[in-house]
Structure formats: structure tokens, C-alpha cells
Design goal:
Elements: H1 10-32, H2 36-42, H3 47-68, H4 86-91, E1 116-118, E2 123-125, E3 130-132, E4 137-139, H5 144-167, H6 176-181, H7 183-211, H8 216-220, H9 226-229, H10 241-250
Antiparallel strand pairs: 1-2, 3-4
Bound molecules: zinc ion (2 copies).
One zinc ion binds near residues 104, 106, 109 and 124.
Protein name: Palmitoyltransferase
GO biological process, one term: synaptic transmission, GABAergic
Keywords: Acyltransferase, Lipoprotein, Membrane, Palmitate, Transferase, Transmembrane, Transmembrane helix
């Protein structure tokens, strides 16, 4: 069941309002000016305009899902609440848990392996990836697949919006009056172009990370993370691209990563 425990507060409201405002502004630009979508709408050919709006609604819904849901907050010590995991059941007989999980210095809970405390959310987050200011929430074990899905749908919307915005711009007689008249469409085009580049980079990075079963935090800070720095293999959680992607997108349950860890050194992770 999906828990709605994402970061809240006036900051979150402001960020989400900016997102909704930008989306509505771009939509106005695309439908108020003589773009391809507006022409199709006026001719009664509603298939593409409606499909475009449905995709926009889908991307907005995914945005609010990743922004408001629980990213994977650690609520209890592991001894008090055992995480449910097929892998854990499979490995329980092997007695691999000679690892001491460290206690968070802020919320004083035992951190499952791959969890990290987020200062902005004031929680430890399981399989912490990063705190995203755009969604005003952490990206963690629970909402990371939805985050990637959001990036993908948003990118499709942007790649469609880019030529549509361009189709409404007529550069034959550019003048100050032309500039003033087309200002909203020009701004829409610029916003769409910038976000398209950002989304391509973000989606590429996160698909790479997911396919290697690693996180932004682990990728950037390997030298600071004891369970990676002291491990004999480069990535102890990597099970191959297909299994990694399957686990990432198709496993709803939380995973006890420490049970998959090959090291039995008895040291603190
Ligand atoms: Zn903490
Ligand atoms: Zn956070």
C-alpha cells in the first residue's frame, strides 16, 4: 500500500505550485497561439490534442506521486520490524548477518544497509538516492521507480511539445510588436527546450543507475561508504542488468540489502 509521507511544508507547496504554474503556462502557450495542436483543435481533429493533454495529466499525476509518497523512511529499528523480503528468507539459513548496522546520529534508529539520513526530510531513507528539490522529497527505495517513470513520461511530453511550440512561431517579420505578441510562446519554447535537455540527462543517469543496482549517493560517494569501500567486489548488489531492472521496477516490497551483502567481517556498516 502506498503511504503518503513525503516532505511537506510551505517550501513543498511553493515548489509544487511552480511546477503546476510552469505546466499550465506552457499549455496556454501551445493552445493560444497558432501551433499545430491549436490548428488540429480548430479543425475538429481532437485525437492528438486530447492524447497530448492525457500525457500531460499522466506526467503531473506521477509528479505528485513521487513528490508526496513515502520515499522509504526508516520508522523502527530492524529488530522491531523485520522487512519483508524474498531474498532475506532465502538467505536466512546462511547466517550471513555478522554485520553491525550503525545507528543514525540524528534520529537514533538503526540504519538498514544503503539507508542514509536526509537533513531536509529529517528521516533516514532506505536505499537513499538523493533529495530532489524539484519534487521536494527524497528519492528512495519506495519512490525511485515512480521517479524514473515520471522522468520518462515527462520527457515524452517535452519531446512532443518542442516541435509544437516551434510550429507556432513565425519568424518572417520579427519586430518589437511581434516579440511582445509571441512572448508567452517564446518563453514556453525556452522552458520546454531547457527541461528536455535536463530530462534526457536525468533519465539516462537513473536508467544507468537502476540497471547497475546502485544509487546516485553510492555512485558519487563510494569512498565515503564503508560497505562499498571495504567490499572486495565493486558493487555487491549488482546481479546483472536484467535482474537489476526487474528488481527495480517490479519488486514492490522492501529488500533487506544487508542479507545480500557478501562480506562477513563483523564490522559496522
Ligand atoms: Zn536518521
Ligand atoms: Zn530528503
Amino acid at each position: 500500500m502506498m503511504a503518503w509521507r513525503g516532505a511537506r511544508g510551505s517550501g513543498g507547496f511553493m515548489v509544487r505550485a511552480v511546477y503546476v504554474g510552469l505546466t499550465c503556462g506552457v499549455l496556454l502557450g501551445l493552445f493560444l497561439y497558432p501551433t499545430d495542436l491549436q490548428r488540429q483543435e480548430e479543425q475538429g481533429d481532437l485525437l492528438q490534442p486530447l492524447l497530448f493533454l492525457a500525457l500531460v495529466l499522466c506526467s503531473m499525476s506521477l509528479y505528485f506521486v513521487v513528490s508526496l509518497m513515502d520515499p522509504g523512511y526508516v520508522e523502527h529499528d530492524e529488530e522491531e520490524k523485520e522487512p519483508v523480503s524474498d531474498e532475506k528468507e532465502a538467505m536466512s539459513s546462511q547466517e550471513t548477518l555478522n554485520l553491525r548496522l550503525r545507528r543514525c546520529g540524528y534520529c537514533l534508529l538503526k540504519q538498514p544497509m544503503r539507508a542514509r539520513h536526509c537533513q531536509a526530510c529529517r528521516h533516514c531513507v532506505r536505499r537513499y538516492d538523493h533529495h530532489c528539490p524539484w519534487i521536494y522529497n527524497c528519492v528512495g527505495e519506495r519512490n525511485h521507480p515512480f521517479f524514473v517513470a515520471y522522468l520518462a513520461v515527462q520527457l515524452v511530453v517535452l519531446l512532443w511539445a518542442l516541435p509544437v511550440a516551434w510550429s507556432g512561431l513565425d519568424f518572417e517579420h520579427p519586430s518589437w510588436a511581434w516579440f511582445q505578441y509571441n512572448l508567452l510562446l517564446l518563453l514556453s519554447f525556452l522552458v520546454v527546450a531547457v527541461f528536455t535537455v535536463v530530462m534526457i540527462l536525468l533519465l539516462g543517469c537513473h536508467l544507468y543507475l537502476a540497471s547497475h543496482n546502485t544509487t546516485t549517493w553510492e555512485f558519487m560517494s563510494r569512498h565515503r561508504i564503508s560497505y562499498l569501500r571495504d567490499c572486495e567486489v565493486e558493487n555487491p548488489f549488482d546481479r546483472g542488468i536484467f535482474l537489476n531492472l526487474w528488481q527495480f521496477f517490479c519488486t514492490c516490497r522492501l529488500i533487506a540489502w544487508e542479507t545480500l551483502y557478501p562480506e562477513v567481517g563483523g564490522h559496522t556498516v
